[in-house]
Design brief:
heterodimer; A: 227 residues; mainly alpha; MetI-like fold; 75% helix; B: 251 residues; alpha/beta; D-Maltodextrin-Binding Protein, domain 2; 2 domains; 5-stranded mixed β-sheet; 40% helix; 22% strand
């Protein structure tokens, strides 16, 4: 099997790494309070919100990308907002990719964290309250540490899902070298153009690299203590 | 007893109906860009010949991969000329059966009918933020668009404004959603029943790009079907070509 890495593989890889790391970070910040609310709330809206948050799983990625393109475009309300704020349009930009990736991976981040909070049950927080911890204290010093496996799973899933993401990026990215051309779109291009040597090299690089990152993340997860 | 007998009779009649000499539908794989004219061509062909068509729409490359793995299509209407040629060379298609059924036309399109006129001068001015096109490496209309920019020596100037869709459908969506002002697309995407559906176009002079030929080929699994060759012949007939012209294809 012939391997030939094309010189533009590195910028694409760097961009993919940036996108995946940022997506995972944004999702941690965004998904944790959402998951907390979903795990704790008794609001009648809970089920509706949970259902909406799972929607990105239902739409085919290119279709999701299409609606994001419409939303971020000059006629969409996000596009109108960004233009009114003087930020220009976010389609075909890194920001657009980041938004797309965050939406696309949202359920992968929310669900593991939510289950971790739910598995914890009300007891640890009650104990914390009895010991005089304020709710925010209890959240940061009791709930979050206990939900660590869920947070890690969410990070791993968001990261990996973003690295392999393709349809959304293709749609809102516009395949611009150095700006929106990530490894997955480049890999697809190589395969479609039957440049198999480049495709193999890039695929191998992507797999090895992702394996290392995912292995390191998985090692952070402490083994379950014997109860 | 009476019931069993009645059931048996129904079963017999049913068998006769199913066993009656009735040709299986002709299964044709059609490139998605040709979906609109197919809607008119298929019933016209069926009415003229009595054959029935089973149309599958999809990407040419995917069809090629499926055919190489034994997909039972009788005829392929590809979006290019290379794929049918390759299938013929590899023995998946019947030698000598290849025909060019349509020729695509490249246009520059904008969504606003009232915008500044579309022409070479407009491209040279570059008074837009984004120019959409299909991927030049993968899509025939993308390659043609690149040839036009090269002919005008505008690749350097407009390079930073280019956004690539995976195919011309995506290039169309970029413009249609307002994310790009202009786009190189296929005339057939905006031409319906002999009229421009939306916006404004500039038909790119055909001497500026290599012809975009769409070839059809008889596949090995279709060579015994009596309708297959009739369908290929029909595609080259004047009534069929008139329908194709109404959808933005030439010959």
């Amino acid at each position: 099997m012939e391997l030939a890495l094309s010189p533009d593989a590195w910028p694409a890889l760097a961009l993919t790494l940036q996108l995946a790391v940022l997506t995972a970070l944004v999702l941690l910040v965004l998904a944790t309070p959402l998951a907390w609310w979903l795990a704790q709330s008794r609001s009648p809206w809970r089920a509706a919100v949970a259902a909406v948050l799972s929607l990105p799983l239902v739409l085919p990625p290119t279709v999701l990308g299409f609606y994001l393109l419409v939303l971020l475009g000059p006629a969409g309300w996000v596009g109108q907002l960004t233009q009114a704020m003087g930020w220009g349009l976010w389609s075909f930009s890194f920001t657009g990719l980041l938004i797309g990736s965050v939406v696309f991976s949202l359920p992968f981040a929310v669900l593991p964290i939510q289950y971790a909070f739910e598995a914890m049950g009300p007891r640890p927080l009650e104990v914390a309250a009895t010991l005089g911890a304020r709710p925010l204290d209890a959240f940061f010093h009791v709930a979050l540490p206990m939900a660590r496996p869920g947070l890690l799973t969410a990070t791993i899933l968001s990261f990996a899902h973003t690295v392999g993401e393709f349809g959304v990026v293709l749609m809102i990215g516009g395949n611009i070298a150095g700006q929106t051309r990530v490894v997955s779109t480049q890999l697809f291009g190589h395969v479609e153009a039957m440049e198999y040597a480049q495709a193999h090299a890039l695929a191998a690089l992507l797999v090895v690299f992702s394996l290392v990152v995912l292995f390191l993340l998985a090692r952070l997860n402490p083994r379950r203590p014997v109860a | 007893m009476g019931l069993a007998r009645a059931l048996w009779q129904v079963f017999l009649v049913w068998g006769l109906v199913l066993g009656a000499p009735q040709a299986a539908p002709l299964s044709v794989a059609v490139a998605s860009n040709f979906a609109a004219p197919m809607k008119r061509l298929a019933p016209d062909f069926e009415q003229r010949t009595g054959h029935t068509l089973a149309v599958s729409l999809g990407a040419t490359g995917q069809f090629a991969a499926q055919i190489r793995h034994g997909a039972p299509f009788a005829v392929l209407l590809a979006a290019d000329a290379q794929t049918p040629r390759a299938l013929e060379a590899e023995g998946w298609a019947v030698a000598g059966s290849r025909v060019t059924y349509a020729r695509g036309q490249l246009v520059l399109w904008q969504r606003e009918a009232a915008g500044p006129p579309l022409n070479e001068a407009r491209l040279r001015r570059g008074d837009f933020k984004r120019l959409a096109l299909a991927n030049p490496k993968l899509a025939p209309y993308g390659a043609a668009a690149m040839e036009v920019l090269q002919a005008f020596q505008l690749t350097d100037k407009l390079g930073p404004l280019l956004v690539e869709g995976i195919n011309s459908t995506q290039a169309y969506q970029f413009v249609h959603s307002g994310n790009a002002e202009l786009g190189f697309i296929a005339l057939s995407q905006v031409w319906e029943d002999g009229r421009l559906r939306e916006g404004a176009i500039w038909r790119i002079p055909e001497n500026l790009y290599r012809p975009i030929l769409q070839d059809a080929v008889l596949l090995r699994s279709g060579q015994t079907h009596p309708g297959a060759r009739a369908w290929l012949q029909y595609l080259q007939s004047e009534p069929a070509r008139a329908i194709m012209r109404a959808y933005g294809y030439t010959h």
